[in-house]
Amino acid sequence: MYENLLERFIAYAKVDTRSDDSSYTVPSTHNQVTFALELAKELIAIGLEEVEYNEMNGFLTATLPSNIEEPVPVIGFIAHLDTADFNAVNIRPQVHPAYDGGDIVLNETEQIVLSPKEFPRLSNYIGETVITTDGTTLLGADDKAGIAAIVTACEQFLAHPERKHGKIRLAFGPDEELGARGAKLFDVDHFAADFAYTIDGGPIGNLTYDNFNAAQAELTIRGTSVHPGSAKDTMVNALLVASQFATDLPQKETPEHTSGYEGYYFLTCQSGNVDEVKQTYYIRDHDRENFAARKRFFSDQVEAFNARFAEPRIALTLFDQYYNMRDIIEQHPVVVDLAVQAYESCGIIPVFKPMRGGTDGCIISHKGLPTPNLFSGTENGHGKYEFVTLETMAKSIDVIMAIVEQNAALSGTAEASGNTGNVAVTESSRGIR
Ligand SMILES: [Zn+2]
């Protein structure tokens, strides 16, 4: 077990780094800067080099220099500094060693209980050290567990020079929880890695590189508001037009009716009155062609509605948010192969699940740096039932170190290096899943 891990994770978790969607500063909250600067001191103290905080994008980056002669691809590890939109004031992580499989009382006074009856996945962790909240905040293991794992792995390499590794780059960035807003400003050229992994969320085994293509549609529906007493043949009630529009979309293609690779239309927000209504929709699909078809269908619906009136009533703004990283990762199968081999060498069965969302990694992959996501162990993220176990975090460190060591063992066999963003695809490649 890694000695400092529990202490390190708890220290990180206690820091309030909640991001704020209503803020347009970079990062969105100053707490994230404070945390990044503290983290920078720690990285320097454990012996990492090129520790830099970039004020323009809020990313903290650092380097673990290679301790081998031969050049091997430079690997990046990335985690996010911010926590989700949930109370993060006075986070008091609770440590429950040797979990017995029963209910965990998070908060006596408010009778908040983390129970395997409600969260059956808890039963996977019997005997482990479960770290929870006190029922009043989130835990922020998403993504402090990822940061703790990456830092601890580097600390291990520095403490054990006999363990061979190429050059490793680290990046800790802001505002992932705001639709990966932080990653959009990430400087891939400056990071100068050949490929990378985000360590962000998901139970043990998760290995993700297949996420949604995502677009957002903003509708402004203009009504004609007149006194209801003289409304006949004059009033156009924007509220009714908006309701009709929403219910005319395929009703089985919504988040609550879909799973796996099924895409959807999601009415996320609606406000207004008879005179004007604004609606926001998310359009999602893993497949690029289906994604395009969904956007076309949505635009056609708007056109069809407008045709019913003497003049157009619905104004549409439609824009893409992010794309499936699979399109990029498939060009670099060695990135997934390396992770799969590392999982297997740690006795972990890889779990490939389509991700019904996005990550920093999909933004970064589409900037040219292939970046799948690896588990960090977080369960029930974004709320008071969030938890992680010490044992899973330790496994995450094992995986990071195994990836790095297997990459180092490739020296002389893999041609790739020189920070080109391209990695050689070896004959032994197992192909993408
Ligand atoms: Zn996360």
Automatic annotation (TrEMBL):
Its EC number is 3.4.11.4. Its cofactor is Zn(2+). Binds 2 Zn(2+) ions per subunit. It catalyses: Release of the N-terminal residue from a tripeptide. InterPro entries: ArgE/DapE_CS, Bact_exopeptidase_dim_dom, Peptidase_M20, Peptidase_M20_dimer, Peptidase_M20B. Residues 414-433 are annotated as: Disordered. CDD domains: M20_peptT (cd03892). Residues 211-303 form the Peptidase M20 dimerisation domain. Zn(2+) 2 binds at D142, E177, H382. GO terms for biological process: peptide metabolic process; proteolysis. One of its GO terms (molecular function) is metallopeptidase activity. Keywords: Aminopeptidase, Hydrolase, Metal-binding, Metalloprotease, Protease, Zinc. The active site is at D82, E176. The keyword Ribosomal protein does not apply. Zn(2+) 1 binds at H80, D142, D200. One of its GO terms (cellular component) is cytosol. Belongs to the peptidase M20B family. NCBIfam families: peptidase-T, PRK05469.1, PRK13381.1. This is Peptidase T.
